Amino acid sequence: PPSAPENPISTVNETCVTLEWSPPRDTGGRGDIFYSLLCRKCSGDGKKCAPCGSSVHFVPRQFGLSSASVLITDLQPDSNYSFTIESQNGVSDLSPNPRGTVEINVTTSQTVSVVLKERRSKDSVTLAWQGPERPNGAIVEYEVIYYEKNQREQNYTVLKTRSNMMTVDGLKPGTTYVFRVRARTDGGYGTYGGEIELETSHEDVLAIGDPNQSTILVVSIAGGIVLLIFLVTCFVVSGR
């Protein structure tokens, strides 16, 4: 039988993981090497693990792999997994010795889903969000995708920023847009957070604290007083 696979590496992209490894150093003198994988989902401290189950998928397959790589999809976000890669050949089942295996641990990315604040006008929206609590590495940037509600298949826009806040301009007045945010680390992209629906204003509205607002308020009060005096005067004159 062959020895264990060597040099396993992982690449995390959202809730998908690509595993690659090197062939065993000792092939057992045979050329019919193939690989199989075991998947376990583990607790945060790694002390308790259980089989992944049928919800996790392997491409092209989980057992009988002829190539030294596999794509694993449909994992849970912000979760710990342990993968055991086993090398075999045509006489592995006849050997009493344990099969050669190597283990690799992976943590999937966490979603960005909490919007802290928003500001809207007739043609722009400002979003702010909180990054993942336990990102898979240092956050390099955030990606924001947005589109008109029910129009994603026709047209959508992707923007990127290093900040956790962004102003999106050039929007249509009185239109509902859907926003989603995800983080990218050195290990790849995390999962998009939930959909956030925001509607732009039909016309510009002065923000609270705008210095022009106090001026408008004073003018409005003065105009109201003048109108009231005029109406009182008219009433008195007509009464005479």
TrEMBL record:
Its main location: membrane. The chain crosses the membrane at residues 216-237. CDD domains: FN3. The keyword Nucleotide-binding applies. Residues 1-110, 111-203 form the Fibronectin type-III domain. InterPro entries: Ephrin_rcpt_TKs, FN3_dom, FN3_sf, Ig-like_fold. Keywords: ATP-binding, Membrane, Nucleotide-binding, Receptor, Transmembrane, Transmembrane helix. It comes from Ameca splendens. This is Ephrin type-A receptor 3.
